[in-house]
What we know:
- By secondary structure, the protein is mostly helical.
- The chain has one helix spanning 29-54.
Amino acid sequence: MPPGETPPCESSTGSGAGPYRPLTRGWGKGPLVLICLVALACALFFLAYAIMLDM
């Protein structure tokens, strides 16, 4: 390459992720059940706390 010329660009500048494939499955049942149980436990805790404050 002669001096003063711009070097060629790299050939691997793409993302390399491949074609877009949408998700075929949703959330697993395990994480959903766990999140629901934690939310229910928090709701019950605050409900009991509100009842105790009222007494």
